[in-house]
From TrEMBL:
This is Por secretion system C-terminal sorting domain-containing protein. It comes from Hymenobacter psychrophilus. Keywords: Signal. Residues 1-22 form the signal peptide. InterPro entries: Secre_tail.
Length: 477
């Protein structure tokens, strides 16, 4: 009896530090995206027999999803759902920001992109996509692009920011959290949790075997090797078909109550190493996202000289921003802080920052910004790659915003480049204009014409000068 009592005490102690893991199976059975304008997956079944034979091969944003008997919109394009006569519950979903990805990137981790995301059919992008994982988990409209993501996310913890969960959302029948699965998961369990400011579990964990979720459709993707820099694409992972699955759950499944709801600060995925994320989204009627750094970075690049690198970055607006730490690497893998620049704090006016790093390192130089917020949260920019040659190209857009044509000034190349390739695309990766200029001169103004019919909005201009890439954000009036 005494041993039994001790065992019960030990069990109670263990449970206090190891909250229960509920087994929850809330598989989405159908999705609607904007692939080709409108794509409906069909009903997910074993063997994928009832799903759409058309397989998305580019960016496509989630418009709606079905769970149980109801279809829930994401508010990405409700007008399209109305046009197609879809009956749905009006709701809005947005991707949660990535606070951190804990785990070692090995040869198993891939960046997944629709195989025509780069407008290159059945082959690698030139230059290859940036190797930073976080941006691929929150891009597209409302951050809900199913055509980009990370396959085999490193085993460990992935934290997303969220707070201000509303008591009225608990057990209201509307899904509060969506987790995506866009490749071939292993059979191991993933564990989902809400955490407080001290990383203590709120309520209980939820355990999911994503392999058991229904397949709602297949897509065609390229899977880039994320552990190499630049990322590489091999034949076995080119133009490759993979299934799509989604899980949707209510806060109530996590043991969230009126007593603990105010303590939520994070949503954590404990990843087994075989899970494949496009995004994690939340219902905006149920909570507010915790933005890790509300800074709109519009440009980050620079010039490499023989004994130094000059870096420049621009922001469109900043809210409670603290500083930018400049990090440097000779390999593109291991970064160290080489400087700090104080941020503007709170402003809606465009800001321009500069930093000079003294280095005589030959070859490629890799830089990134560690953007710090006043509340201690942070995020990283994409990696900028500079060449150490004195003739590093500088590219500017003028005027910006542009109208019927876009002019790009290329200067500082040292000698006339053999060619300059320009690609204009939407934020979702759809290429709307491209052109190659042969031997344009040492300093030249390149003009993209015939752009008057483009919808107004934000675009990315990717300019490749003899292999050196500059990406500018430009605005169409």
């Amino acid at each position: 009896m005494k041993k039994a009592i001790l065992s019960l005490v030990a069990l109670a102690s263990w449970l206090a530090y190891h909250p229960a893991q509920a087994q929850v199976a809330n598989g989405v059975t159908e999705i609607i995206t904007d692939f080709g304008g409108f794509w409906r997956s069909g009903s997910g079944t074993t063997g994928n027999a009832a799903t759409n034979a058309l397989k998305p091969d580019n960016s496509h944003n989630l418009l709606a999803f079905k769970i149980g008997a109801n279809i829930f919109s994401t508010r990405v394009n409700n007008a399209k759902l109305d046009e197609k006569g879809i009956l749905y519950v009006k709701s809005e979903y947005q991707a949660l920001p990535v606070l951190s990805i804990e785990g070692t990137i090995g040869s198993n981790t891939k960046v997944a992109l629709g195989q025509l995301y780069d407008n290159v059919n059945n082959g690698p992008s030139v230059p290859p996509p940036a190797g930073n994982l976080s941006p691929y988990l929150r891009d597209g409209l409302n951050g809900l692009d199913l055509g980009t993501g990370v396959a085999n996310v490193p085993a460990g913890k992935v934290d997303f920011g969220i707070n201000s969960v509303k008591i009225t959302s608990l057990n209201d029948g509307n899904p509060d959290i969506i987790v995506t699965q866009i490749a071939s998961p292993g059979g191991a369990q993933d564990v989902y949790q809400f955490l407080d400011a001290n990383d203590q579990i709120i309520g209980n964990s939820v355990s999911i075997n994503v392999s058991n979720l229904p397949v709602v459709g297949n897509w065609i993707a390229d899977f880039y090797e994320a552990s190499s820099n630049p990322m590489t694409l091999t034949s076995g992972f080119t133009n490759s078909e993979r299934p799509i699955r989604l899980w949707a759950g209510d806060f109530g499944a996590f043991g969230i109550t009126g007593a603990n709801v105010a303590s939520i600060r994070k949503f954590r995925l404990n990843i087994n190493g075989n899970s494949d994320l496009a995004f994690v989204a939340y219902n905006t009627d149920a909570a507010e996202l915790r933005n890790p750094l509300p800074v709109t970075l519009t440009f980050f690049g620079g010039q490499g000289k023989a004994t130094y690198s000059d870096l420049t970055w621009n922001t469109a607006q900043e809210v409670n921003s603290a500083a930018f730490e400049v990090e440097y690497s000779t390999t593109g893998r291991d970064f160290a802080v080489v400087g700090r620049v104080e941020a503007a704090g709170n402003t809606v006016a465009a800001q321009r920052y500069t930093f000079r790093h003294n280095t005589s390192q030959a070859g490629a130089r890799y830089y990134r910004l560690h953007q710090l917020d006043l509340d201690g949260t942070s995020t990283y920019s994409a990696v900028a790659t500079l060449a150490s040659a004195a003739g590093t190209a500088r590219v500017t857009a003028a005027p910006n915003p542009f109208g019927g044509s876009l002019k790009l000034l290329v200067s500082g190349t040292g000698e006339a480049p053999a060619s300059v390739r320009v690609q204009l695309s939407t934020l979702t990766g759809r290429v709307v204009h491209q052109r190659t200029f042969e031997r344009p001169g040492q300093s030249a103004t390149l003009e993209l014409t015939g752009l008057a019919a483009l919808p107004a909005g934000l675009y990315l201009a990717r300019v490749v000068v003899d292999g050196q890439t500059t990406v500018l954000k430009v605005v169409k009036e």
